Amino acid sequence: MRIFSAIGALAAAMMLAAPAAAQKGAFETTDRGVVARPTGQGAYPVRVEAIAPDILRVTAGPDDSFARARSLMIVDQGAPPAFKARRRGDVVRLETEALKADISLTTGAVTFRDAKGKKLLAERPARVFSPKTAQGEAFYAVRQLFDSDPQEGFYGLGQHQNGQMNYNGEDVELAQHNISIAMPFVLSTGGYGVLWDNNSITRFGDPRPYQPIGCALIVRDASGEPGGLTGEYYKDGVVAATLKESDPDYQFLPPDQFASGESVRGAWPEPFGETSPEKIVWTGSIEAKSAGVHKFRVYASEYLKVYVDGALVVDRWRQNWNPYYYNFELEMTPGEPKDVRIEWLPNDGYFRLLHLDPMPADERRALSLSSEVADVIDYYFIHGEDMDEIIAGYRRLTGKAVMLPRWAYGFWQSRQRYATQEELLDVLKEYRARAIPIDNIVLDWFYWPEDKWGSHDFDAARFPDPKAMVEAVHDMNARIMISVWPKFYPGTKNFDELNEKGYIYQRNLEMNTRDWVGPGYKSSFYDPYSAEARAIFWRQIEEKLDAFGFDAWWLDATEPDIHSNLSHEERALRMGPTAMGPGAEYFNSYALPNAQGVYEGERAGAEPDKRAFILTRSGFPGLQRYGAAAWSGDVVARWDDLREQIAAGVNFSMSGVPNWTFDIGGFSVESRYSSEDPAHVEEWRELNLRWFQFGAFAPIFRSHGEYPYREIFNLAPEGSEVYDSLVWHDRLRYRLLPYIYTLAADTFHRDGTIMRGLVMDFADDRNVWDIDDQYMFGPAFLVSPVHEFRARARRVYLPAGGAWYDFHTGARHEGGAWIDADAPLSRMPLFVRAGAVVPMGPDVQYSNEKPDGDVTLYVYTGADGAFSLYEDDGTSYAYERGEWSRIPIAYDDARGALTIGAREGAYAGMPQSRTFHVKWIAPEGGDGFSFDAAPDVSVRYAGEAMVIRRN
């Protein structure tokens, strides 16, 4: 709804002052649910609809039209389930077989209950609708606060670089960024999830934007005088300027920064001009005006240290073109100032210190969702007995997680960047010559002529025969992915075609913004919110790139990152107006229609049965329906970034999109590494090895980054411990492909999740709720990456409810305890649940080398267990037509009996028989995993059930 286009501002104000004046206290039943018009002051009309027995939709708005733009995230839901609606006093109840929703006819607040009447969640009264405009159109800023259990755990919300697992009591800004993916879907340990259907910048927790420190704190300089911190600006090793600053603001580029074609940060004080100070030190103190937990965010690039009362609270580095936030909290009391010291080496970088006063105590741990631009409040309440059921509900709403090709779960080698055709092919040849398993190689950006971004043409001097290049990759039994941006230079035919139809965003051009290539070129992005624009975008790819036989599409910069280091307000202007509305209204959703166009185009193309694979740097609810994986962006090669990828990936996976990855080793690199300083080679190799060990247990296993090169044979010399461990973990990944591909299939067939927060499987063990550096990889593996330099052991929590085996040694441990796990350089702590049945394939060089190869079943005794081994052709959509097979495998611990059940289903090319080996892992045996371990028993399986017993 656009209220100002329909009625005057005065009428709109009257409507807001007296919402739902007509028929107050009434409700009506619709074909999907009920509409209530509450009587209370400040109450708004609310509609509750039954989508499925366990899913309800709630919409509230200033009037009972509930008008809003078409949802991007929700797919067609078909007919509603059976429901009943009846009034009891001041409450109208909507009831399905699984849920009850009680709507107050006074306040409009909705209370959700399960089938037995147990309260799951309740809205607090007084929804917030604050009028605002975006690019001349009228909207509301909205907020919904809930009365949730203060002890609940909250998860999901996408991918965020804050190292947080459980978001109870935290604030999360959902705003797409190079390294942050906004997914407005939250799961609770209380048996529900909330999918918030809004495309704009959204906040979980405190709805207030962070403010400069001087807004709510008393800021004093180094001498104790109020008014600001003392800032000392260094030049040539000495202080060249001293300032008193209440808000040192170097956060964003001004909108016209590049109007002159310059690329200097600017805005430095005298005498620096456009030359960056070599160092800035701010000292002084901050004092609270209110007691409680005060939250701080430091937006920064380059080297930064923040000390509070002498304690180091931030010590980070980030590349200059990709600054981001670091969070910390302080317990503060009025009258008790805290000393602050900030040391920053700017190097033309970015910095600002921001702050939020404590929230009201009764809101701090309550579920709260707010959005900057909306027509209505619109969300879906999903009930589930466990988090898998809740994620299944999310996928019912937003689409199934279509299967990726089997080869996508092999190893990916990438680099920023292979500069020539020969360079790329030589890398793949070297992998094959060394017998190091690999499935995929990647051609990153800039294969085109320098001034032809978006043309999809190849620079003939560097890539003389792209078709031959692709064929050579295929001849080596590998696949190739190519980078495609939504970015275009004026003057290219592709730009002209899109621009003539109005499908190129204009502001970036009007601002005369120049990019970083060569002398700097003007550019802009296309608008994927138009179906015609999507079709053109795909056709251009199809004609110029797909024709060569590329296997996968790397859709980069899909936030969209039209230009880095701009404010949210300026970014919104540069990505709009879209075909559907202002950029601010659709701020977070660009990646979804962009992936849609490529996926749907490919499925309608020359090879409609060839599975798509898309890698995209951003995402939004529904991404999983377009054959897409996301990665964590241009994170940096530092230990703290390595650690933060654990919580980032787990929460992203719990947001309903199962395929995720990162740049193994981190993308951007400090000069101490890029210069190959001998003093830092050991740390560089160890960092990459630890990240690689972690990556072997990520949904997508992918190495990428800036120089130094990331190929296994470039990271460490052959025969070294690092080299051998890299190869060992690569081989292990391929041995695990039967297990991993079954997990991948389960994301479609059973709405499963590969990378699992511990709370998904051990919700009854309160100890796991906040663990942010361990996770489950499928049902069997507890993964505990090592994220400290030279650490040779780490604390690991083994969840309660059963026993655990050390994968490497076979040692057995009881659950419900912390242990100090060995972590030699060559191995990462890895534990397997008692009762797990883990199928492993043969040694292979690529994923489909031995489709009928032997399978070894590792059976971890001590509990009953099961596994359903899935197989299909691995490359087509025949699985959607029911062409697949499963072999059910069950272990009865009391009987010592392993049953390999009768095969279910079939597919073209299915092996009719194969050899199964069995390896018993038992407390008395003490056997860990070994590539050369002899099986305890071997059988030939031809599709009929058989039972194997332990001796």
What would you note in describing this structure?
- There is one protein chain.
- The chain has 951 residues and is an alpha+beta fold.
- It is 17% helix and 31% strand.
- It has an 8-stranded antiparallel beta sheet with strand order 1-2-3-4-29-15-14-12.
- A hairpin with a 2-residue loop joins β5 (84-88) and β6.
- The longest helix has 16 residues, at 639-654.
- The relative contact order is 0.09.
- Mean pLDDT is 96; it is low at 1-22.
Describe, in short, the structure shown.
This protein is α+β, with helices and mostly antiparallel strands.
User: Which sheet architecture does the biggest sheet show?
Assistant: 8 strands, antiparallel
CATH domain class name of the largest domain: Alpha Beta
Low-pLDDT ranges? 1-22
Portion in helices = 10-25%
CATH architecture descriptor text of the largest domain: Alpha-Beta Barrel
Placed side by side, the strands forming the largest sheet appear as 1-2-3-4-29-15-14-12
Radius of gyration: 28 Å
Count of DSSP strands:
56
The fold-level CATH name of the largest domain is TIM Barrel
Secondary-structure-derived class = alpha+beta
Distance between the termini: 71 Å
For this structure, the quaternary state is: single chain
| Total number of distinct structural domains | 4
In CATH, what is the homologous superfamily of the largest domain?
Glycosidases
**Helical stretch count?**
17
Portion in beta strands? 25-35%
Q: Mean pLDDT score, rounded?
A: 96
Give the overall silhouette. Answer: globular
List the helices and strands and how they pair.
Layout: H1 3-6, H2 9-17, E1 26-29, E2 33-37, E3 46-52, E4 55-60, E5 84-88, E6 91-95, E7 99-104, E8 110-114, E9 119-122, E10 128-134, E11 137-145, E12 154-159, E13 172-174, E14 181-188, E15 192-196, E16 202-204, E17 211-212, E18 217-220, E19 229-235, E20 238-245, E21 279-288, E22 292-300, E23 303-308, E24 311-316, E25 324-332, E26 338-345, E27 351-356, E28 368-374, E29 377-383, H3 387-398, E30 411-413, H4 421-434, E31 440-443, H5 466-475, E32 479-484, E33 487-488, H6 493-500, H7 507-510, E34 524-525, H8 531-544, E35 552-555, H9 568-574, H10 591-603, E36 614-616, E37 628-631, H11 639-654, E38 660-661, H12 671-674, H13 681-695, E39 701-703, H14 712-715, H15 721-735, H16 737-749, E40 755-756, H17 758-761, E41 775-777, E42 781-783, E43 793-798, E44 803-806, E45 812-814, E46 817-822, E47 830-833, E48 837-840, E49 855-860, E50 865-871, E51 884-892, E52 897-900, E53 904-906, E54 914-921, E55 937-941, E56 946-949
Parallel strand pairs: 30-31, 30-39, 31-32, 32-35, 35-36, 36-37, 37-38, 49-54
Antiparallel strand pairs: 1-2, 2-3, 3-4, 4-29, 5-6, 6-7, 7-8, 8-9, 10-11, 11-28, 12-14, 13-16, 14-15, 15-29, 16-28, 17-27, 18-21, 19-20, 19-21, 21-26, 22-25, 22-27, 23-24, 23-26, 33-34, 40-41, 41-42, 42-47, 43-46, 44-45, 44-47, 48-49, 50-51, 51-52, 51-53, 52-56, 54-55
Helix pairs in contact: 4-5, 8-10, 13-15
Signal peptide: 1-20
Family: Belongs to the glycosyl hydrolase 31 family.
Pfam family, one: Gal_mutarotas_2
